[in-house]
Structure to design on (273 residues):
């Protein structure tokens, strides 16, 4: 049975729950109904991502949520309460958006692949969370939107992740209209990888996770890092960079083992080196 623990042990029902099973860490947003990205929730997620960076027993991370909403974005009630501060909330707003930016970048730069398991609404910073993950698997009931324009707060930070997943026209359509798109449209846009029936969502995500977990963690880490690095480069620079990456990868023990196993028609035994 997988071990289940609260990230903040002093809180029985913390904002995020963590469980492990066969090299896969599952992080579950556990503050329904909204599962909002309050400062406490973002701090809990950040702490867990940081904690397992060098943990060799964790090979893949799944990000899921409890309840009918995956994540409703920032906690607007929490933020609004700080308008009564002497600075009208400026310091708190800056802290909130800085924490969110740090969390999203941590996911992208994390050595472990991160899979979003989306069942329900992912809106604003919640959509940003999905878009920041390496893979996203959604149920047919999942929906997505960047509705900030409807309440006078344009989704400027969520659009960073959104615009790195979908085309400019599709991103601007979502950002300017604030309208909700269904899972099929999200897949068409390129925001999610697959759509599955709700009853099979967990099973499919776990299969993805276990498939990735069976690979060399060194090779997966190398590939993930190179993917995001080259995406920001000019074509010639990208080829020069990835060429160097492949040379180093070729010299790694796992490449020697993997190629030898392929030639010898046997299953490779990874050393993660």
């Amino acid at each position: 049975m997988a071990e289940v623990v609260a990230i903040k042990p002093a809180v029985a029902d913390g904002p995020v729950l963590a469980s492990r099973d066969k090299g896969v860490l599952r992080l579950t947003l556990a503050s329904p109904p909204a599962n909002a990205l309050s400062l406490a929730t973002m701090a809990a997620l950040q702490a867990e991502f940081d904690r397992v960076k060098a943990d060799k027993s964790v090979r893949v991370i799944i990000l899921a949520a409890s309840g009918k909403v995956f994540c409703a974005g920032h906690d607007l009630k929490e933020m609004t309460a700080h308008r009564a501060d002497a600075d009208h909330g400026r310091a708190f707003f800056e802290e909130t958006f800085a924490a969110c930016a740090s969390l999203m970048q941590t996911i992208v730069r994390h050595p472990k692949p991160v899979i979003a398991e989306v069942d329900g609404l992912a809106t604003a910073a919640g959509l940003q969370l999905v878009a920041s993950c390496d893979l996203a698997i959604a149920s047919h009931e999942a929906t997505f939107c960047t509705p900030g324009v409807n309440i006078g707060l344009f989704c400027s930070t969520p659009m960073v992740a959104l615009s790195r997943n979908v085309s400019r026209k599709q991103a601007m359509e979502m950002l300017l209209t604030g309208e909700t798109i269904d899972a099929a449209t999200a897949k068409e846009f390129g925001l999610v990888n697959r759509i599955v029936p709700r009853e099979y969502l967990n099973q499919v995500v776990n299969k993805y996770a276990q498939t990735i977990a069976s690979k060399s963690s060194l090779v997966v880490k190398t590939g993930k890092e190179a993917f995001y690095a080259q995406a920001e480069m000019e074509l010639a620079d990208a080829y020069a960079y990835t060429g160097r990456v492949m040379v180093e990868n070729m010299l790694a023990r796992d490449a020697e083992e993997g190629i030898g196993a392929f030639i010898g028609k046997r299953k490779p035994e990874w050393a993660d080196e």
